[in-house]
Amino acid sequence: MKMKNIIIFASGSGTNAENIIRFFQSFDNIKITYVVSNRPDAMALKRAEKLNVGTKIFSKDDFYGNNRAFNFLLREQPDMIVLAGFLLLVPADIIKAFPRRIINIHPALLPKFGGKGMYGGNVHHAVIEQKETESGITIHYVNEKYDDGDIIFQAACPVLPNDTCETLAARIHELEYVHFPKVIQGIVENIIV
Questions:
Q1: Residue pLDDT, tens place only, 39-72
Q2: In what order do the strands lie in the sheet with 4-9?
Q3: pLDDT tens, position by position, 124-181
Q4: Which helix (H) or strand (E) holds 123?
Q5: What does the radius of gyration of the chain's CA atoms come to, in whole angstroms?
Q6: Does residue 106 carry a catalytic annotation?
Q7: Global confidence as pTM
Q8: Which domains, and CATH codes, for the chain?
Q9: Is the peptide bond between 40 and the residue preceding it cis, with omega within 30 degrees of 0?
């Protein structure tokens, strides 16, 4: 059986990236080969290094101007690219080169509370402001628009009357940690190579 390789894109603290790396450490058929970030100071890179996963930093220009990120992906040929708190819009050439091989997790129940600028605390604040009674996570394929690709999986949790952005975020993170690695596993094991 051919080894499947996954590259994670992350811009921030990297808790989801670390959780995914740890989940797949015991697999002999799936490997996280790199964590890629657009921010040199992203904690996701330090978490990956501690777990012996390769790291790469690409600037916005490397994604949109000089094709360094695109060329790196063409060389590596990942079976899947996983966005775990990655804040740049994935360029169209990368999406075309890896059709239905790029997935993202969003901390709300799409199509509500998605789009440009809707990430992290911004999402939770909007959910609470709109007096929603539930929120959750959406795992979806990535296309040329923010949070617009076909939905793969959703899981919901209640929004409590006394919730703050922090308490809601904690509940959302629990859903992410439980479901995201399993959904990735289910997709990558069914990719024909």
A1: 999 999 999 999 999 999 999 999 999 999 999 9
A2: 54-57, 30-37, 4-9, 80-83, 102-106, 134-141, 151-158
A3: 999 999 999 999 999 999 999 999 999 999 999 999 999 999 999 999 999 999 999 9
A4: helix 120-129
A5: 16
A6: yes
A7: 0.95
A8: 4-106+138-154+179-189 (3.40.50.170)
A9: no
